[in-house]
Amino acid sequence: MSLNGIDCATKLNPTTATNLKNASISAVGRYLGRNSWKGLTPQEVQAIHNAGLSVWLTWETDPTHASYFSYSKGVSDAQAAATEAEYLGAPHGTAIYFTVDFNAQAQDMAAIIEYFRGVRDGLQGSYLVGAYGSYAVLEPLEHSGHAPDRYWQTYAWSRGQVYPGHLYQYQNGVQIGGVQVDRNHINKAPGAWPEVMADATPVGQAVVHANGGLHLRDAPAVSGKLIANMPDSSKVEVLAKTSDNWWQVSWGGHTGYAAAEYLAIVQPPDPQPIVEAPVPAAHPEVKEVTQLDNLIVAYGDADMPAATELMNFLRCPVILLDYVTPALLAACKGKPYKVGGPDDPKYVTIAGQDRNATAVAVGDFIAKGKQ
Length: 371
What we know:
Elements: E1 3-7, H1 14-22, E2 27-31, H2 42-50, E3 54-59, H3 71-88, E4 95-99, H4 109-123, E5 128-133, H5 135-142, E6 150-154, E7 167-176, E8 179-186, E9 205-208, E10 214-217, E11 226-230, E12 235-240, E13 246-251, E14 254-259, E15 263-267, E16 296-298, H6 304-314, E17 318-320, H7 326-331, E18 337-339, E19 348-350, H8 355-370
Parallel strand pairs: 1-2, 2-3, 3-4, 4-5, 5-6, 6-7, 16-17, 16-18, 18-19
Antiparallel strand pairs: 1-8, 7-8, 9-12, 9-15, 10-11, 12-13, 13-14
């Protein structure tokens, strides 16, 4: 279930931070930049934390036009933001959100994607890459080769479409606790400091599937400091599914992060209803999802016949990609199969160059499975 959050440009003090906490706010979004009129200071961070609030970090200078965005700008923004986050004492692995604060069009996305490539290179794994923007920005970003780690959607310019991200800004310019704020839903763990919620997914014991062992790191990134190498077939405790790519785990008396693709849940807790955050009006609302042994996702209508053939072989549900939600993916014990479309790390993709080639690929997969 989502929590209440706000973002604001106003510097908070002990009184206003406490007022927000008393108004059932769990976390606040604030800006990096000690020399900015709206920038966080160590004293403000202390006031926020003392009030029992978490904070998510945002970097923004003037991202209000397409010409702002380039690879080099992404690198420089990321380096400046990381410097400010470290000045405040924000732990590595926290998210920093970089904003696209205008009505971006399809022709602007190439430059925006290059910007986020630069952001990741500039952060060098020290902090998670967060992206703020409209549905038209976040959706193509996710499917680019430079997808962020965390997503924060604004309802502005989104034309009623809701992206299944971590934060959803749904109202601007309201007064809460004496502060002018924007209201947000916190749908999944947003990389706040400290984190405010684990994703609504079952966690429990998992087993390592990596021939050379699996690295346990101190941050959810390949650049994180190596804590240990967990041997193949080791059992670990999964503390939180912090993203699609990284899980927080405990092993051998150590706690850290490991690549999710090499872990398989073997002892999930009893299935619990998962209450999904708002979804696009055009899609059926998903209220509860129980555990699934497996799932097949058809990339498009044309891929449904091949997906149905695979469904008959694997004996598991099939659904169109347009209707997939984070809750549905979370309920799947293993990595779901995707029939058709480009490779996606969230799925085991079975696809060819066209619909007919995809059907052949599915047939080959089934034939191998029967051997």
